[in-house]
Amino acid sequence: MAHFAFVSAPASGHVNPTLPLVEELVRRGHRVSYATGPATMDAAVAAGASPVTLPSELPPDLASRGEFTAEQLAVTMEYYLDDARASFPVLAEHFLADRPDAVCYDSVTFTGRMLANLLDVPEVSLVPTFAENESFSAAQVYLPADFDHTHPRLVAAIQDMGKFAQGHSFLDDPNLMFGHVPPTSLVFVPREFQLAGDTFDERFHFVGPSLSSRQTAGEWSPRSSGPVLLISLGTVFNDRPEFYRTCIEAFGDSDWQVVMAVGGLDRQSLGPIPANVEVHAQVPQIAVLRHTEVFLSHAGMNSTMESLYHGVPFVAVPQIPEQQAIARRAEELQVGRTLTDPTVQGLRDAVQSVRSYRPRAAALSRVVRGAGGASKAADVLEQLLTQ
């Protein structure tokens, strides 16, 4: 049986989509070593992987980085470079002593590609959002029209990244963050949802999302016969008490059974909670989605795929450019609607209107579920090692 090394930044939005694949590989008798930071290691171990703990942490001010300005892109590049300087020696030491047959790495975690090049083993990019190729770049949809490519801090960050790459002669391509197209990519999105999907060739396997055993084990039951409205802004950009208060005003004391996940927000800041509204730090999202009529979401790709997996249309309140692009794609496919400035009446109207999208969401659910998921992804990895 084979040994696969997985490498990812310690972000749940990047680690979680890979966990069903880890489970499937382990079920087939393969060995998986998962390298990530302490914040996401428990989930990888629960999926059956052996831990390789990296000194990686997400920036504490991540929630404040909502726009893709040149300054913020420079800060992001600086973070990844600092992380690489600390993490790559740990990766190299561990896997030189315990060599994998292939390295599977999160698409933004270039230390994984560095490791594959160092060991001279196949590299596989794991893509939790829109994939990129020679003709389609996320910059086309994420960066604002007035983006300053000549910003001094950004220019310096790009130069520092280049110097770092030049210091590693084993790299097959010095482009660490931009421009590299891997020979094999597993994309946890169906081709039908991918932007410019018809431009992607056989190097890209659009396997779509899968559900891990941890997700499917969650339980939740409605408290009433009313339609369920799930509200969540995800795990990072969720410190929005004014948004939750507006939701309570819009749907409190209505026929809706409202289930609201607010993260670490102080519940007292929301004021009185009507009887038809549940407020939790976290909810078993998959279990709730099984009963949900409409999802009021930030439109993160994981939540979007989970919503569409269950045939649930959604109203998007995107917080960052990537989520705005996802929300626009959902609108194009008529499975979602976007609100940029949610008001009480605007929320009511949007939620009511997307209820008519349920047939389209159900049709896309069949596409999502039919993309192949973890089983297809594991097939691709096994075939890769036989070539």
Automatic annotation (TrEMBL):
Tell whether Transferase is among the UniProt keywords. Answer: yes
Taxonomy of the source species: Bacteria, Bacillati, Actinomycetota, Actinomycetes, Kitasatosporales
What's the superkingdom here?
Bacteria
- Keywords recorded for this protein, A-Z: Transferase
Q: Which family is this sequence assigned to?
A: Belongs to the UDP-glycosyltransferase family.
An annotated Gene Ontology molecular function: hexosyltransferase activity
Can you name this protein? Glycosyl transferase
Query: Which Gene Ontology biological process is one annotated for this entry?
Result: antibiotic biosynthetic process
CDD domains under this entry?
A: GT1_Gtf-like
Q: Which organism is the protein's source?
A: Kitasatospora griseola
What PANTHER family does this protein's entry cite? STEROL 3-BETA-GLUCOSYLTRANSFERASE, STEROL 3-BETA-GLUCOSYLTRANSFERASE UGT80A2
